[in-house]
Write a structure and sequence with these properties.
The chain has 1 helix and 6 strands; from the N terminus they run E-E-E-E-H-E-E. It is mostly beta strands. The protein has one domain. A hairpin with a 2-residue loop joins strand 1 and strand 2. The longest helix has 8 residues. The protein is elongated and about 50 Å long. 6% of the residues are buried.
């Protein structure tokens, strides 16, 4: 994998070599990222009744890259792995 044209975490531009690096075809970030998993039954129930919100850490990763055939593409809300 080549270095993507642009990488964003939560809408903030990331710098190659400082905020992230490409390693074995994956983006490795210098800080730990988190994504909220699927909400279980009790979590949905508590949200429905206004007992709790969904204020957990949820980092969103977006990548803009050049296509092999020309042009640019966006990969949005990519999964985060620990």
């Amino acid at each position: 994998m080549e270095v993507p044209t642009e990488v964003y975490v939560n809408g903030i531009a990331q710098r190659s070599g400082i905020d992230f690096r490409v390693e074995h075809g994956l983006l490795r970030f210098s800080r730990e990222l988190h994504q909220e998993g699927k909400l279980g039954f009790w979590r949905w129930t508590s949200i429905l009744f206004g007992v709790a919100g969904t204020y957990r850490k949820n980092d969103v990763v977006d990548v803009i890259y050049d296509r092999a055939g020309g042009g640019r593409a966006v990969a949005s809300n990519l999964p985060v792995e620990p």
